[in-house]
Specification:
The structure holds three protein chains of three kinds. By secondary structure, chain A is mostly helical. Chain A is built from six helices and no strands. In chain B, strand 1 and strand 2 form a beta hairpin. Chain B contains 16 helices and two strands. The chains are: A mainly alpha, B mainly alpha, C mainly alpha. Chains in contact: A-B, A-C, B-C.
């Protein structure tokens, strides 16, 4: 813990900003991004929705991880660790998606409501009345 | 810089002497005691799983027989026995003994720390593990009996009670596995943090003994791979209990998804248990050939590379499950690639042996036995990694013999190697070397006699999940029946030889010769403290001056050079 | 440091260049990433393959989701302000900010409870179909993390108030931000992408 204290002292000597940025400003930026991501779908353009939804989610996550969690102040190994975990998840996705995304095979077929074939025989409960 | 042994650990140590038996042995936060807890729990379950294997092997060899100690083996008994034999051996024997027990014992002692960095979390980890054992045992006695759908828990057998007929048993089994994962996540975080942060002054990254590296890499692999399966276990539990359909294709789910979630964990898991055994072997081989480990950095980089590669091969378990054939191609290639680093490690060990002055003490025999048997396991894996050959061999006894040739060296031989090597340090007594050798040869020869015949029955068509071959005329030829009976008898012989070990263990513990501080004349830090080490490990924590494998350095009087010796 | 007396020397070392507690929390976060990664990865596979998921997702209430996002983002702000206060050595102030964060977590859970109640009343249960199974499972596991965070934070605030174990304020904050980040991704996945 002594190390920790020394670490903080060094930062305080350089001024508060380096360790503790203006958190309220970052929070405000996050809220603006939130508003954009909610507003995005109202344009009704799919690509815009995707960008405002997931592009902004990534930006928001980056802001939180960098400024609130101080990943840049932690040892480098932490950044590598987190990136490796995300990479493994991409690997998992790449390996599993070709199978899971199939709606039918040589002797099986997913139910029609989900496979998008023919007319729904087994509709999702409480689905019809809302339409 | 010498670390002053500040008062806390001292005080603690003094407390320790006056604590009651329960506090000392059951509620201790001392990493050495927690090692023993894990080890003895693991061994008790190994006896149980060994007994299971005896029962179902008797049924295989002599169908319909009244098995002594069990009775008639019904089909559902058989399924329950094979399922739990596999699950117990992997989750409740290999992992607790190889990672948790050896990790707990060796990491603080080998890096020169007085304990784990989170002793209470360490204790909690064992307690959760113990709870998982209780839950597992309870699953045998619930309505319908224990789960019998294989340790891989594939749906629909796992998900639907109307197929498995063990609705409650399945859920309880799943809960036990999940608790076990939680225990090892807590333990793993402790191991990794300890090795990263609590090293003795002077111990740089390349001064860490290989076995510590291996256990740390294994813990990281476990943490990185188990997540999807934890998510999958929750989904499976909801399928069983809440009527969701994550794995039911009739209602939009996908059973293959479970296989991906499972094997994304399941394959790295092989390396999770393999790496500690490889590390134990490295320590023993260097000590008993009095040579520096050949290419320390190569071994380390190879292990890291193997760890990363192990995340890219999982679907080779699913070649016949109906996965996308294009993916089968990719996974064949990655699977064949991963045999390269493992082969390289074997070569490095042989190179370490080359030109050394080898002593064939019991631990060394186990270490060499590990290399020999694991080699066969690795070579036969190449057949199964190639998707074409796997279509024929899948789910035959060839697969079974292959993975026993990998897991037996890991879980049994690796454990015996480590145990016989560190026994003097752990318990302060020496083991009987003659009895140790008898035990080694009995186990080693009998093991090969069990599984070499099974390679052949597998190639001739014996299928893993068949409970009684008498209904299959082409599988009841005298040759096949004789091979099965021979394998079973060898198993009985091998189990019998374990009594030699139990006898040796108990008598050595009670009446063995007092062990020296450093009976094998090894370099690593655990050999610089008393045998057994006191609470807090050293009166004054050591400082490290060199790497762990400085054996037979020219110009020195001794052929070893302890890591903490100033000159 | 009240409990320091029983701590091994090992705990205080930092060969990796950062305090042991912070290192351990990052490892916990790493192991959580793969738990959520496996679940959300499976969800995305289904979502990409089946347009029917979009029709089902249309029944989720974006406004409630957005409100909860706002609540969690704000609670993250107070968590990091607590960390700042604890760095300055002001345990009382840190505890106060932690209480605000806990309040945020509770508001989140209460809103979630009302949201789920209305959805279940409308007939969308966890067993309705695979979209709703994923919806309740993912949000449920996340909510369990929120609840756990609130409870642990209560203990941390108790000691921080007495100016003890102030490094814990940062550690629970790290965990809380991670839970926030998970929600940042859950929100578009479950609510916006329709």
């Amino acid at each position: 813990m002594a190390d920790h204290a020394a670490h903080d002292h060094a930062h305080e000597a350089h001024g508060e900003h380096s360790h503790h940025p203006n958190y309220v400003k970052i929070w405000a930026a996050l809220l603006v991004l939130l508003v954009i991501s909610v507003a995005g779908p109202f344009l009704g353009i799919q690509i815009v929705t995707l960008i405002t939804a997931f592009g902004i989610a990534i930006v928001k996550a980056y802001l939180v991880v960098k400024n609130f969690m101080h990943i840049d102040i932690a040892a480098k190994v932490v950044t590598y660790l987190i990136l490796t975990m995300l990479l493994f998840m991409l690997l998992f996705f790449a390996g599993a998606a070709p199978d899971v995304m199939e709606s039918h095979g040589s002797n099986w077929e997913k139910p029609s409501w989900i496979a998008g074939t023919a007319h729904p025989e087994t509709p999702a409960p409480a689905h019809e009345e809302r339409h | 810089m010498v670390v002053k042994h500040a008062s806390p650990a001292h005080e603690h140590g003094d407390h320790h002497a006056t604590q009651s038996w329960v506090k000392t042995y059951l509620l201790s936060t001392d990493h050495k005691i927690i090692c023993f807890q894990y080890m003895f729990t693991g061994m008790a379950l190994a006896i149980l799983a060994g007994f299971f294997s005896y029962v179902f092997r008797m049924q295989m060899a002599f169908p319909g027989m009244n098995v002594p100690g069990w009775g008639l083996v019904t089909p559902s008994d058989y399924n329950m026995l094979v399922t739990n034999h596999g699950a117990i051996m992997i989750f409740w024997v290999a992992m607790p003994v190889l990672i948790a027990a050896f990790g707990n014992y060796l990491i603080p002692l080998m890096i020169g720390a007085d304990d784990m960095v989170f002793p209470k979390i360490n204790r909690l980890s064992y307690q959760i593990f113990l709870l998982s054992v209780v839950v597992l045992l309870a699953s045998f006695f619930v309505d319908g009996g224990g789960f019998g759908g294989a340790w891989t828990m594939y749906p629909p057998l796992m998900a639907k009670a109307e197929y498995s007929l063990t609705g409650t048993g399945s859920s309880v089994f799943l809960l036990a596995v999940a608790l076990e994962f939680v225990a090892f996540l807590l333990g793993g975080i402790n191991f990794v943090t300890t090795a990263m942060n609590a090293r003795a002054p002077g111990m740089k990254l390349y001064d860490i003994p290989i076995v510590v590296w291996m256990i740390v890499i294994a813990s990281i692999l476990f943490m990185a791979s188990v997540g999807p399966l934890i998510a999958g276990a929750i989904m499976m539990l909801f399928d069983q209990q809440l009527g969701t359909a994550f794995f039911d294709p009739n209602r939009g789910g996908d059973p293959i998804l479970w296989q991906h979630l499972f094997w994304f964990f399941g394959h790295p898991e092989v390396y999770v248990v393999l790496l500690p055994a490889v590390g134990i072997t490295a320590e023993i081989i260097t000590v008993f050939s009095r040579k520096k480990l050949f290419a320390y950095k190569t071994v380390l980089n190879t292990a890291i590379g193997t760890g990363i590669l192990s995340f890219t091969v999982w679907a080779h378990h699913q070649f016949v499950a109906g996965i996308d054939p294009r993916m089968a191609n990719i996974f064949t290639v990655t699977t064949l690639i991963i045999s390269i680093p493992i082969a390289e490690m074997m070569f490095v060990y042989v190179a370490t042996l080359y030109g050394g002055s080898i002593t064939l003490a019991t631990p060394m025999l186990w270490a060499l036995g590990f290399i020999a048997t694991f080699l066969i396991g690795g070579v036969t894996g190449i057949f199964l990694g190639a998707s074409g050959a796997d279509i024929y061999l899948h789910d035959t006894y060839f697969v079974l013999a292959h993975f026993h040739y990998t897991f037996f060296p890991i879980a049994i031989i690796g454990t015996y190697a480590g145990l016989t090597f560190w026994f003097p340090k752990m318990f302060g007594k020496e083991m009987n070397d003659t009895l140790g050798k008898v035990h080694f040869w009995g186990t080693f020869i009998a093991f090969n006699c069990i599984f070499i015949p099974l390679f052949f029955t597998g190639m001739l068509g014996d299928h893993r999940r068949i409970f009684d071959y008498t209904n299959f005329p082409e599988l009841t030829t005298p040759m096949l029946e004789n091979l099965r009976a021979f394998a079973t008898l060898s198993l009985v012989v091998m189990l019998g030889f374990q009594l030699v070990f139990v006898y040796n263990f108990v008598t050595s513990l009670l009446w063995g010769k007092q062990a020296d501080i450093n009976p094998w004349r090894a370099n690593t830090l655990e050999w610089t403290t008393a045998s057994p080490p006191p609470h807090g490990n050293w009166p004054e924590l050591p400082t490290v001056y060199r790497g762990p494998y400085e054996y037979s350095v020219p110009g020195r009087k001794d052929d070893f050079w302890p890591q903490d010796a100033k000159s | 440091m009240s409990a320091a007396g029983s701590r091994p020397i090992a705990t205080g070392r930092s060969s990796a260049g950062m305090p042991t507690g912070r290192l351990a929390v990052w490892w916990i976060i790493a192991s959580e990433i793969v738990i959520f990664g496996g679940l959300l990865g499976s969800y995305v596979m289904h979502r990409l393959a089946h347009d029917a998921f979009a029709e089902q997702a249309a029944h989720t209430n974006t406004w409630i989701g957005a409100f909860n996002t706002f609540v969690l983002l704000t609670s993250s702000l107070s968590a990091v302000l607590a960390h700042k206060a604890s760095d300055a050595g002001d345990g009382k102030k840190a505890a106060r900010f932690l209480y605000y964060t806990m309040a945020g977590g509770l508001v989140f859970l209460i809103v979630k409870a009302f949201e789920w109640t209305s959805e279940i009343q409308a007939g969308f249960t966890i067993a309705s179909n695979t979209f709703w199974s994923f919806y309740y499972t993912a949000a449920g596991i996340h909510a369990a993390h929120v609840l756990a965070g609130v409870i642990i934070m209560g203990f941390v605030a108790q000691t921080a108030k007495k100016n003890l174990e102030l490094q814990r304020v940062e550690l629970i904050g790290l965990y809380w931000h991670f839970v926030d980040v998970v929600w940042i991704f859950l929100f578009p996945l479950l609510y916006i992408a329709k």
